[in-house]
UniProtKB/TrEMBL annotation:
Keyword set includes rRNA processing: no
Protein name: GNAT family N-acetyltransferase
Domain of life: Archaea
PROSITE patterns: GNAT (PS51186)
Keyword annotations: Transferase
Amino acid sequence: MGLTKIHTRSAIYLMSFKRLLQDTAGSLLVKQWKLIEKEDIVPIEDSMLPEVLRIQVDGFENGNEEKLIKYSKKSRNIFYVIKDKDKIVGYCVYYLKPVLSLKGFEKQSVISSIATDKNFRGKGFAERLLKGSIEEMKVNGITFIHLYVNVNNLPAIKLYEKTGFRIIKQVENICGQNEKCYEMGLRLA
Ligand SMILES: CC(C)(COP(=O)(O)OP(=O)(O)OC[C@H]1O[C@@H](n2cnc3c(N)ncnc32)[C@H](O)[C@@H]1OP(=O)(O)O)[C@@H](O)C(=O)NCCC(=O)NCCS
């Protein structure tokens, strides 16, 4: 086997091992998650899933249903649903990303998906979802929140900037093939 092949294989094994470590540490953190009382914002329940999936399908051209279903089972505590009276009007789902640095383990998170019902947009629901979930992230020792947003998605970019996120850099092929998006971040500690 050539040296290049050995290097490529080692890199792939290392990346898979790193991902496995992050997933395991992430699952442990989610299990110990502290919930805070948030008016109208609750962790997802199975019965809410069809409505949440409908909002996702309406909000995204190529939403990933399977991913939402997986997170609703594995990461219930950080899958936030907002209601107006009893109606589900939006959701915001995170995953945890423990990062090993020279300072030790840093608990970071990533917003995987956020959307509000088309009939309830412009009423402050997404902003409340973000603010409520960010408060809970702080209580749980999360130091940094990441997200990726298409460069043309102005409503979302404005929303994130309003809640304190800043653009870190432009990246390609993360939001979709050949699509340009911004990596944005919010430091909490
Ligand atoms: C982006 C999205 C979640 C915003 O939800 P929303 O409930 O309408 O947002 P809010 O009413 O809480 O708005 C909060 C702030 O966001 C910004 N914003 C929201 N909609 C906007 C729009 N159409 N144009 C410009 N800014 C907008 C504004 O700064 C607004 O504050 P303001 O009302 O004081 O000006 C919603 O448009 C959506 O679901 N889009 C489809 C899914 C999506 O793109 N998700 C983001 C993927 S990265």
